[in-house]
Amino acid sequence: MSLPNSLIPANDAQRLHALAPYQVLGTAPDAVFDELVRLTAKLFGVPIALVSLVEENSVWFKANFGLAGAERVARNESICSVAILQDETTIYEDLRQQPCHLTDPGVAEALDLRFYAGHPLYSPSGHAIGALCVIDRKPRILSAVEQAHLQALAAVVMKMLDLRLALRRQPTQASATWLQLYHHLDQSLTRLDTLGELIRWETSATTAAALDYQRSIEEEATLITRVLDEQTTAALAGLQQS
Fold first, then answer.
1. What phi and psi, each to the nearest 5 degrees, are found at residue 20?
2. pTM, to two decimals
3. Shortest CA distance to 64 belongs to which of 49, 77, 43?
4. Burial, 31: exposed, middle or buried (Cβ in 10 Å; 0-12, 13-18, 19+)?
5. Which of 5, 60, 170, 193 has the smallest set of CB atoms within 10 Å of its CB?
6. pLDDT tens digits for 169-206?
7. Domain edges within the chain
8. CA dist list (Å): 20 to 70, 93, 120, 123
């Protein structure tokens, strides 16, 4: 993986300008984004998933599942700062064997973080303002199918950020729209919980039934991503016409 020599891209001023509107969303808990990162963690079978926004000097976790107490960290302490520097997904299969030298490696070591995969969140102007990432405390490989799922989910997250911003200007429609998205997420999480329990009953992850359940999880990832994308796209279009 080829990386630049600095965490600060040449277009950082323009990137920060593109980020500025989303900073008004604040750090208050947001059930839909919280459910979305919980869903992401379950889909990838990891203990941690984050939606991060990379500010001038810090990284703000708009949504955080599994990294208790973390709301903001210094920009040089988060690998999400690296994820915004590349067009493709940033992947570290084992941070102990392959540490990220653009950020402080002691932070990942102190938190016992071994695996990281993050895909940029692109604003409508094309600037990478943050990342959707999944993190594990053990080494692992991200398959091509999983990379595609992460990229698709990152695009949905960006649309949801745009929708959240648009709904601030039209608060009368906010509750119904956001409740609908929450409902889809909740249904999907219930299905994933059931599949996870079924897999745990199997004697091995390679039994025919376990493989069938895993295929169902992959199908669920495709389904919920499509549903969220369609619902968010429709809601944004409706707001633009009203």
1. -50, -45
2. 0.92
3. 49
4. middle
5. 5
6. 777 777 788 888 888 899 998 998 888 888 888 888 88
7. 12-241
8. 21, 32, 16, 11
What the block records as the tokens of 42 is 């379950």
Q: What is the 3-state secondary structure (H, E, C) of the chain?
A: CCCCCCCCCCCHHHHHHHHHHHHCCCCCCCHHHHHHHHHHHHHHCCCEEEEEEECCCEEEEEEEECCCCCCEEEHHHCCHHHHCCCCCCEEECCCCCCCCCCCCHHHHHHCCCCEEEEEEEECCCCCEEEEEEEEECCCCCCCHHHHHHHHHHHHHHHHHHHHHHHHHHCHHHHHHHHHHHHHHHHHHHHHHHHHHHHHHHCCCCCCHHHHHHHHHHHHHHHHHHHHHHHHHHHHHHHHHHC
Token pair belonging to 214: 């895993």
**The domain defined by 12-241 carries CATH number 3.30.70.1450:** no
Measure the N-to-C terminal CA separation of the chain; round to a whole number of Å. Answer: 45
Distance CA 183, CA 137 (A): 30
Q: Residue 208: what residue type?
A: A
pLDDT in tens, 75-117: 999 999 999 999 999 999 999 999 888 888 888 898 899 999 9
Task: Say which residue the tokens 């960006």 belong to.
Answer: 158
Strand partners, 135: 48, 116
